[in-house]
Predict the 3D structure of the following.
Amino acid sequence: MNIELIKVNKNEKEKLEKLLQLYLHDLSIYFPLDFDSEKCEYKYDLDKYFNNDFAYFIKSDNNILGFILIDNNGESNYEISEMFVLNNYKNKKVGTISVIKAVPKSEIAEKFWVKVISEYTNNNYELYHTGKYDRAELYFSNN
């Protein structure tokens, strides 16, 4: 599967909004989210992703597999705000590949995530460096 990140154009915003509703519905199991009963949708303002921040569709063979939203915090400081992969593409490394493509390798970020995952799992995780860019992959169970 050839996975690409394609920047979402303003004329595709409606597609992104539909995917976002699926994501927010899934997320609402874990976090209380504001739901607008009049519009029958979860509240989320996507406008900033068409200005200084970035919205990408995750695609393969021109099929949308999900999306990734990236906040530009200035001075080369980017943050993945939201990421969503459709259920039929989960557990196929779509999310992993998308993050790798979206975020340049950062030793600082790697150290941060190793520390967080180490504390969260009580050192029960596996760390691998893979691919031509020697990216870190952390594997753990949250059971």
In short: The first helix runs from residue 13 to 27.
